[in-house]
Amino acid sequence: MRLLSGRVATTHVDAHGEAFHPDVLYDAANGLHDTAMPCLLEHDWRQYIGRSVAARIERLQDGHVALVQDFEVFERSDPVPVFEFSKLLPPVADEDTLPSVLIDRNHADPSDTDLFNTIDAFCPSSGSELKRKAEVVSVSSLLIAFGLFATASVTGGFFKAIGADAYASIKKAIVAWSTQPANECRVLEFVVVCDDIDHAYQVRVYAHAAALGEGEASMDRLWANLRDELATINAKANKIRHVIFEYDRSGLQLLQRVRQDGVPLDMTKLPSTDTTKLGLSAAGIAHNPGPSPS
């Protein structure tokens, strides 16, 4: 395990013409004293590499300020450390995680319109709320988040909470979206908050269009396989906060299980990391900001 430091946000105007107010960064630094945050490569949960352990504000020479975080970056050979109660990842269930569907339109392509319209028709609560919660996804992926489900409903059909008609229509729209040539290399990122005997945890499935485009049976296989996988992870006993899967033509693969304290349980499945490309350095050493972890 390596302890590394990096600037994750500044008050400079970004490529989208937006900037953080200094108070936002100060509040974030204060909040991170008691909370761990995930460390991801390119904001991609498939590349979970560690957790934050400290945060501070750095004053820059041009008068701006930066939020700097120290991260524990795990390696494949690391043993799983003892669970720490002192600093946990944020909870995944709140008043916003009722059965619903949310979509992130920030990386939308014109080919996404029909899929959006179908989801909106059956789930009026859908929208861009996730972006306002600082949810960031890869340009090549489209995020669709489903609200709180009991694990029993996942094993019994997964989408029954939004209704059979809604599921059937959304499934057809997803298959149609996946078969469009423009989406051949894209990914649908499904996010579901599950409840396992009063223990909430988040499940992410990165489903490749090439697999989903094989037909509605492929969608059904995805949820059936997910049901079987979730039945084996013992989320509450293992204190799991996040579970990450990938679904392609070879089937469903478990990529990582992340504990409540931010520790990845599947160390051997960690991605290899070149920290020089992350804009990270040895903890506490100032450096020029580069591509930052989430």
General description of the model:
With 294 residues, the chain is an alpha+beta fold. The protein has 2 domains: 2-89 and 269-282, no CATH class; 101-260, no CATH class. Helix content is 21%, strand content 30%. The protein has helices at residues 22-31, 113-122, 129-132, 151-155, 164-178, 209-212, 216-230, and strands at 2-10, 38-41, 44-59, 65-73, 101-103, 141-150, 187-195, 200-208, 240-248, 251-259, 281-282. The strands form 2 sheets. The chain has a 6-stranded mixed beta sheet with strand order 5-6-7-8-9-10. A hairpin with a 5-residue loop joins strand 3 and strand 4. Helix 2 (113-122) runs antiparallel to helix 5.
The number of helical runs is 7
Largest sheet entry: 6 strands, mixed
Overall radius of gyration: 19 Å
Strand order of the largest sheet: 5-6-7-8-9-10
Number of domains: 2
Mean pLDDT: 78
**Uncertain residue ranges:** 95-100, 126-139, 148-158, 284-294
Categorize the overall geometry.
globular
Taken in chain order, the helices and strands follow as EHEEEEHHEHHEEHHEEE
Give the helix proportion (percent range). Answer: 10-25%
First-last Cα distance: 19 Å
Beta fraction of the residues?
Answer: 25-35%
Number of strand segments: 11
SS-based structural class?
Answer: alpha+beta
